[in-house]
Amino acid sequence: MLRSTRRSTLASAVLLALMLSGASAEPLMDPAYGPELEGFDYPFPVKRFAFTSQRQPLQMAYLDVRPEKPNGRTAVLLHGKNFCAATWESQIRALTGAGYRVIAPDQIGFCKSSKPAAYQFTFRQLAENTRALLDTLGIARPILVGHSTGGMLAAHYALLYPKDVAQLVLVNPIGLEDWSAKGVPPTSVEQWYQRELKVSAASIRAYETATYYAGQWEPRYELWVTMLAGLNAGPGKEAVAWDSALLYDMILTQPVVYRLPQIAVPTLLMIGQKDNTAIGKDLAPPEARAALGNYPALGKAAARAIPGARLVEFPALGHAPQMSDPEGFNRALIEGISAP
Description:
Elements: H1 9-21, E1 47-53, E2 56-65, E3 74-78, H2 89-97, E4 101-105, H3 123-137, E5 143-147, H4 149-160, E6 167-171, H5 189-196, H6 201-211, H7 222-233, H8 237-253, E7 267-272, H9 286-289, H10 295-305, E8 310-314, H11 321-324, H12 326-338
Helix pairs in contact: 1-7, 2-12, 3-4, 5-8
């Protein structure tokens, strides 16, 4: 815990006070970080990939962590919608300890990367950006590990570049069902934007407790609430909220479920069974809402749809098994990618 709390002075003060007092997880003050998470430190040195996309200069932040005893393989970790490269810390340490080089980017529109005011966000575009980064680094045929929205991105990447992916790992990916077809009403970018402007530490904490952590909150999760709340409350909050709105529109309109049978890469599904994620579920009528986000069923259906896929289930974990039980998850991940 003390190692991870060095991310920022504010986060350290909040967590230390909570641990010493035994108080609830309510923060002592609202954090405020810059639009590229200025003021929030990552556990490893942050590098920048400068490139041009859609007629504008952008920069993608990323972590490149090398092992002491390399095994010749590289794992690329793709974060989810409310996550960043830093949230993979435990997996980065476990993978590098097992000999893997690890690349963990912040996608455009997220975290420490650029927040363009006008950008056509598509999973194809994010995959192309990621491919450009990997080409620059000279990385061929990595293992792709994608969580949540990053799972959707990883699946699209594997569909675009099947010969350039050694293995695909999908951790509680979203897009395994078509929420719009199942009752989530059409929602405009402007509506998403107004919703995002209201994001707070309290709303983040409540949502993550119910969805990510299967109703079991622990003080160690507060750091990641601080990260998101500070990003959404800082001087660039309008730019952050606008890109977030564009990203929600991308997610809702580009489900990957229909293309799962086309994935031609060895695939491992890692599914927390207590997950109930369905973006926009609160907007759906009650009769539709109850049927959304059934991950025990969605995981099994995805395993049947993807040729040759293997399924690992975590019965007691939610949407973020890699954070709820990092040791157990890391063991399963390394075992899973070591298997032929």
